[in-house]
User: Fold this.
Amino acid sequence: MMTKGGTGLLVVLSSPSGGGKTTVIKRLLAEESNYLYSVSMTTRPPRENETDGRDYFFIDEKTFADKIDRNELIEYEKVHGYLYGTPKAPLERAIAEGQVVLLDMDVHGALTLQKHYPNHSLLVFLEPPDMNRLIERLKGRGSEGSEQIARRLQRVPEEMVLAENFDRVIVNEDLAATLRRVRSIIKDHIQDS
Assistant:
């Protein structure tokens, strides 16, 4: 989808771990062939169903540090013991080409990106319906042990407070309804720009 005026839009989806951002992005990409996805970099090991270059660029800490030193990342954060970052060059290219790009980011990364691209970003926070559902989703993934889940849950209060700085907050209770809301928010933002 090309935006009006030929300038791109960076649509950031954030949520606590298990809040549904990855699921929402995958569904949007499957249903909206004109959206692009910004592949982040991370030092964490891939989960069983993840592919290097599609889900993340899985790199070691030295390579990540080199990218920081060369100013190749628009933002980076240490989250749950691993580094995550967003490569700058693909975003610059997408903005210049007027593309809509979906990004899966933590709240701090989203707010940093917004500072760099205030006229080209739209921040959407997916709020879990309640803590019990969030815990169920995290356990249901089967990719983390109880210690890792506990570490992820410790960040939730901070994430919920920072969500107040986002353009939109959606309670992600029903996937179909969430997808409709996100599509509508993107469309409205493009029409209003």
About this structure: The first helix runs from residue 21 to 31.
